[in-house]
Design a protein that fits this description.
2 copies of one chain form a homodimer.
Chain A (H helix, E strand, L loop, with lengths): L5 H9 L3 H12 L5 H8 L7 E6 L6 H14 L4 E5 L13 H5 L9 E5 L9 H14 L4 E5 L5 H9 L2 E6 L6 H12 L2 E4 L7 H14 L10 E3 L8 H17 L2 H28 L3 H13 L5 H13 L7
Parallel strand pairs in A: 1-4, 1-5, 2-3, 2-4, 5-6, 6-7
Chain lengths: ~325, ~325
């Protein structure tokens, strides 16, 4: 694949060549020089896929649930992309369940595309790259794209923001339920799922989530449903998928889908501009070296970081704050 | 307090007035105009406190452990600051244990300063503000500053980077241990703590952590110890604190403490410059309005976000990439 011109690569992508898709994703993941051009070319083909984020604490069974959700999509004749950002996901080759999941029919289905993101050592910018990988799968013709993440950090919030519907997966014994819920997960879910619901305490968990949701300040006309599933047997998965589709209808009918996607676009433009501003600033000759010298001054408490920023700024841009 | 001039506020801070300290922290938290000046003035007084980050999954008993660590510091005659970034922490008024912890002697001890960070709704920039609150407590004369966070997102990594020693707290039943450990926690710990170690499975957990640590690529001469604690009774807390002190000695003797702090300074200067670049760009007259119009063009797939960024850039800076 690497011997192809950008034009040839795009041609193959457009006729559904999976290796071309993989190559383009790799370019984007690695920040290759051709990445921007490729994304620009694919841009007119994007915007059709519906994006589902699946998040929750480690051990909640997210990967198995994603697998079963993808199968439900396929059963309804839809094409699916799966993007695993969770480093412990079997889709990432990570966890103990890996072999079982990797033997599932999904891996040989030509209408399913599975991609795991390299998270190790490169957390910065991961949310942006995850969104771009979803964009590519969108352009590749997938109807649904499911993104699996773990936890509730800033990265997960960014990824949740780029999803159309966010599913939060919990289990009956999710540690101290109240603590788990307060840890940010209660803010981002649009559909809640109590997985492993054949275990003791599932109904209590459903009730607790319901109570927390009622207290949730945000009230935009959508009350997040709580669905019980047993991902390993597939129980409840169809209902979960239907609730996601209900949320989709709600977003479309209330015009909120467009609103959300405009917000995502705005964030993306701002991110690109910020990257460029940074690049241009640090490309000024000598600025890196000067900064390094000043780090020592700060360490010795001769100046503060703010004073250093001021000095560097004046050195390269003078006093004109407006004209940069 | 609000009627004071900046100078008066600083004078009171310097003689140990807790209300002045609280006021300055609030200014910094809210991004008040006087924040930068205050931080600059306090800068020469910083750099003496040792910073301990405590992180781990919800329900691991971090808050109780932080409480007992702080008491151990006090027993050794050291002054302590506690900063809770975990929204479920009882220090934040969050969780079920709140009342018990709030009744502890820490809350009436004049040499202990406890501050919780407002995390709700304002996750962006939280890591930066957390560091600045620690800076203020450092200038206020604390010997140790303990920061409690939850999870393993980008924010926690940023906070861990600003800590001198990071303690990762787990429990025997931490979900599927392997999954939990892979979720980033194995990268950031310098001291590991198996809390609630009177429960079944504690020794197995200690062993598993040991195995994972041996596989950890990073080898800089420090092998993270694993300590068993029962925070509710205080068992093992003294040993945990001693391991933290051992890590401190290691950092000081290998000159790595200075290296780390230089890195923190570098990051901070870069963050300040980035903020200013952003500010200056969006202050250009008309740029916000133009961006908003272009969001619609992108939504209709007439242009891509990269093309919009290009257009905005040229509109305000021309084609000179080097001179901004």
């Amino acid at each position: 694949m690497s011997g192809l011109t950008t034009k040839e690569l795009l041609e193959r992508f457009r006729v559904g060549d999976r290796r071309a898709c993989a190559q383009i994703i790799s370019f984007v993941e690695n920040g290759a020089p051709e990445a921007t051009l490729l994304l620009d070319e694919l841009y007119p083909m994007m915007g059709r896929a519906y994006r589902i984020g699946v998040t929750g604490p480690p051990g909640a069974g997210k990967s198995t649930l994603v697998e079963k959700l993808a199968m439900e999509c396929r059963r309804q004749g839809k094409k699916v992309g799966i993007v695993a950002v969770d480093p412990s996901s079997p889709f990432s080759g990570g966890a103990v369940l890996g072999d079982r999941v990797r033997m599932s029919s999904l891996f040989t289905d030509p209408e399913v595309y599975i991609r795991s993101m390299a998270t190790r050592g490169s957390l910065g910018g991961l949310a942006g790259r995850t969104k771009e990988v979803c964009d590519i799968l969108d352009a590749f013709g997938k109807d649904f794209i499911i993104v699996e993440t773990v936890g509730v950090g800033q990265m997960e919030l960014d990824i949740a923001e780029a999803a159309d519907s966010t599913v939060v997966v919990l289990v009956p014994e999710s540690g101290d339920a109240i603590q788990t819920l307060k840890a940010g997960l209660m803010e981002i879910g649009e559909v809640y799922c109590v997985n492993k619901s054949d275990r003791e305490g599932a109904d209590r968990m459903v009730m607790e989530i319901g109570t927390m949701l009622e207290m949730r300040a945000k009230n935009d006309g959508w009350m997040p449903p709580v669905v019980k599933t047993v991902a390993t047997t597939g129980k409840g998965v169809e209902e979960l998928f239907n609730k996601i589709l209900a949320h989709r209808r709600y977003l479309e009918e209330s015009n909120r889908l467009s609103e959300r996607r405009r917000k995502v676009i705005r964030n993306e433009i701002e991110r690109i501009i910020e990257e460029r501003l940074r690049e241009v600033f640090y490309h000024q000759p000598g600025v890196r070296k000067r900064l390094e010298e000043m780090v020592s001054d700060v360490e010795q408490r001769k100046v503060s970081p703010y004073q250093v920023a001021d000095m560097l700024w004046k050195m390269y841009f003078g006093n004109e704050q407006r004209r940069v």
